[in-house]
Amino acid sequence: MSARLVVIALFRELMTHPWQLVLTLFSIAAGVSVVVGVDIANQAALGEFERANQTIDGVATHRIVGGAIGIDERVFQQIKVGAAIREAAPVVTAEVVIQGKSGSYRLLGIEPLSDFRIRDLQLSNAEGPEQPIPAWPLYVPQELYDLAEKSLVLKSGRHIQQFNIAGSFDSDRSQSASLSRLLVTDIAWAQSFLKSGGRLSHIELNLPEGFDQSSLRNQLPDSVRLVDIGLFNNARSDMTRAFRINLTALSLLALVIAMFLIYSTVSFQVVRRRHLFALLRAAGVTNLELVLILLVEVTVLAIVGTSVGLVLGSLLANGLSAMVVETINALYYSLVAPTHTANWSSIVKAVLLGITATLLASALPIALAGRTTVRGLLLRSAEEKSARQLSVRALVPAILLFVSGLVLLIVPVESLVIAFIGLFMLIIGLAALTPWVVRRLCQLASRFGGHALGLIPKMALLSVGAHLSRTSIAVAALSVAVSATLGVGLMIDSFRNSVEDWLNGYLRSDIYLTSESVGQEFLSPNFLQQIQNLDGVAYLSTGRRQTLSASNVPTVLFTLQTSKNGFAGFQIKKSLEGDLWKRFHSQEQVLVSEPLSRRRDLAPGDEITLPTDHGEIDFVVAAVYYDYSSDQGLVTMDRETYARYFNDELIASAAIKIVEGAKVSSVMETIPNLPAAPRELFLRSNQGLRQASLEVFDQTFRVTEILRWLAIIVAIVGIVSALVALQLERGREYAVLRAVGFSRIQLGVQILLETGMTGLCAGLMAIPMGVALAVCLIKVINVRSFGWSMQTVIDGNLIVQAMMLAIVAATLAGLYPAARLWRTEIGYGLRND
Amino acid sequence: MNSLDQANVSLERVCKAYDEAGIRRMVLNQLDLQVVGGEFVSIRGPSGSGKSTLLNILGGIDRADSGRVQIGDRNLIGLGETERTLFRRHHIGFVFQFFNLVPTLTVAENLRLPLELCKKHQNDDEVRLWLERFSLEDRSGAYPDVLSGGEQQRVAIIRAAIHRPSLILADEPTGNLDASVGGEVLQLLREVVDQGACVVMATHSEKAAHASDRRLLLKDGQLYPQSVF
């Protein structure tokens, strides 16, 4: 086919409505940018985690770890000499802050003569290799070194020490942002600083393949364990898997909405050019030729839109990366926000996704354009008829899709991906029902309320149903977006409600205190005794939370010393029969939180193996309790049980119950002034802790909120442009109405009513969709992602807000056409069809 | 300008019905028509009598339910959608009441379009000659929306004829024009016929019909010579 002039004709027609072209590009770019933004942010966080591990762990394959107070440094000698392991390096590490600088740093105390076998930090001395190293030497990242400071004051808990900058290490080498937060010193200085002489944090080993690990394990004392670093890091990385999948799913939801818009805009481009297609077809252009040209046109749009989306996505990723890392820091582990974001895999994924999504979304309108006869193309009524037929024909597939999605959600598998596929099928199924529902709603409303409403509202109602070929998909897209905001909003609301209820039951004390900020400083028994002796203090509960490596999987152990009253704060989901307090307090049984019970498939009566200072011990699970403090879950153990298995008497936090009538504020003021009080103490009232917990909760949903609003913006732009395009296209129809006597106000009212009713229909569809989405998120997705069960709360305010959002967005779309018609002369309107 | 290709047109027992609101309406009923090369035939009839349907069937836009539609040596009844389109591309020219020029192409581009689709050599001189002959030489680079109705219809006639089709179908070509411009258009159609093409014209206008070689009336789905009534 030689179709140069056909292409020119179509292209020029496309360019006569540049804003529609811009909208098509925007739809593609918006969908792609959200996916790219989230993907880059996820990849960046994961990549940073891996890079940080690679750099800091070096070639180490295993790690010997101890209990709460680390390991005796004689173990290192035993390994070097007894087990003859050459590639072993002792490490003393702690989190520190630099006085006068923000953020925390990791101090790594190493023994240079051993450490070079494990990691290659390329330390360089400031004064040259031959010069003596100063006392309290500190090697800092290049960027810190460039500030030309001679010394830095480090703080870790109550320990403060001025270190002299001895040199730098190359922090750009691994591209790891975490290296920019690393400080290195000699192990002996680190021990002196942390007052941990003779103790090591851990020992890193590079064990050759086939090394007899069991023999090594037999040589180690009971209080230390050999951990596989790869498995341990994988388990840590897996912690964030559900969080990352949830973000990806939300970004894909934005892409699905964008696909609806692409479908809508491409349909609009096709529908608007039907007359031109008819002329070309009458002149002898075949259906196949027309389809091929349109496919090429859409592919070019997809490439341009995707390219714009990549740029926008990179910009979005900068903001999202920081938020994702912030959430990971709050929920999982400490990570430094990476400064670089783009990566090839994200770009390739986005290009494929953008082009595929555009072609998929455009396939149906293009195929329909190709199948229509010349006669059909010339008739506007035929176009609306085919839209009506399509809405009816879509009913069965839509219902099938909805039911299949429901089945996928109900089937008892743990796969999160299957759950999201089910959820997407449910949403698309409901969205596909929208055109039919909108038409029926308008028909019913005009039939039963037409006389009462009067002529103009009746015309508006009929008009909404009559122009489905132009608006139905935009309405469906708006419904999906509004339902997404409603569903996610209801889920967050329900979640928040459950957390609030849980906090109300769990936080039974009046004052909470901890000495932990950066580094480890513990509450001394003397200090705790002084608190207990204070006037107004009824009783004291103490706690200690630490991460153990049980079978290479990080497991949080919460040790609790409390009274029976304090114990009553646990909200039990399932338990063994009998007196639970007795089982916990005197029978060495433990409690596991709901997320841990789901992750490890633990039920009351099962056993959980924990590494103790006396080797690995199996503990009976007495109960599963509700807990929203960690999605990884935790094991709660009585302090007395803990004391029997761990050589650790340290206490990190305490909760104080005040006697009735005593003043919480006066006790809070007294505590920091007690003689044995640590230098830095964090005190919070019950209300303060509750507030802080909810702030952390809100922070973790900030990314979700942003993605939710991005999806809404995409949909609002879509509905506004679709409705504006439709209204402008009907200029002659409105001129005729003006010619037969409609006033400008009447016409303006009709336009606004029409667009408002379109929004109302979208809103009405969005409510059941949103509630269904919320129920799925609460009952399936959240449970599978994080292991939390929660009650479903349907907040009427959110429903009203969602409805208003749909109506206002659609009504706004009527303002421009109404204003334009206000200025247009009737004669001009009649001449310009 | 070379003479147009000649072909005979033959319709035998052609039937076409439409379903309208559940009622089947027979528009063409056992219709017969013979047109020889170089003949100008006009078809009159009341609104809704099926004139446009007949033209659409002749042009391969619509398909007859039964019968035989023979143009030259091809029976359109047996052809699929794509084959009919390709046949139309090479052998049919259309002139519509509302001109239907491609609004995003200039006059010259509109004229080159059928040549390009037929992969015929695009001779600018030929386009220029046609434009001169139809007094449109100064409108070559103009877009259709700035042309008068008469000018648009003249361009439409050239576009229908420029690739030398066997058959030109004109649906109310003067319906939207005043009497004097309508007369010019009919004169131009006559010139095209003189080049050897068949022209079948549907019209309401008795005056327009008088410009043809043979006048037919479409009534109750069948064609009758005008002289019968």
Written account of the structure:
The complex is a heterodimer of chains A (833) and B (229). Chain A has 833 residues and is an alpha+beta fold. Chain A has 4 domains: 1-56 and 237-378, no CATH class; 86-206, no CATH class; 384-505 and 692-833, no CATH class; 516-680, no CATH class. Chain A is built from 30 helices and 22 strands. In chain A, the strands form 3 sheets. In chain A, strands 1, 3, 4, 5, 6, 7, 8, 9, 11 and 12 form a 10-stranded mixed β-sheet that branches. In chain A, a hairpin with a 2-residue loop joins strand 18 (607-612) and strand 19. The mean pLDDT of chain A is 80. In chain B, strand 9 (214-219) and strand 10 (222-225) form a beta hairpin. The relative contact order of chain B is 0.22.
CATH class of chain B: Alpha Beta
Structural class, from secondary structure content of chain A? alpha+beta
User: What is the tally of helical segments of chain B?
Assistant: 7
Low-pLDDT residue spans of chain B: none
Largest interface: A-B, 27 and 28 residues
Q: Mean pLDDT of chain A, nearest integer? A: 80
Mean of pLDDT of chain B: 85
Strand arrangement, largest sheet of chain B? 6-7-8-3-9-10
Summarize the helix and strand pattern of chain B as letters: EEEHEEHEHHHEHEHEE
Task: Provide the number of structural domains of chain B.
Answer: 1
The CATH topology of chain B is given as: Rossmann fold
Rg from alpha-carbon coordinates of chain A: 33 Å
Main sheet properties of chain A: 10 strands, mixed
**Going by CATH, what is the homologous superfamily of chain B?**
P-loop containing nucleotide triphosphate hydrolases
Report, as a whole number of angstroms, the end-to-end distance of chain A. Answer: 32 Å
| SS class of chain B | alpha/beta
The residue fraction in helices of chain A comes out at 55-70%
CATH architecture of chain B: 3-Layer(aba) Sandwich
As a whole number of angstroms, the C-alpha radius of gyration of chain B is: 17 Å
What proportion of the residues of chain B form beta strands (DSSP E)?
A: 25-35%
Largest sheet of chain B: 6 strands, mixed
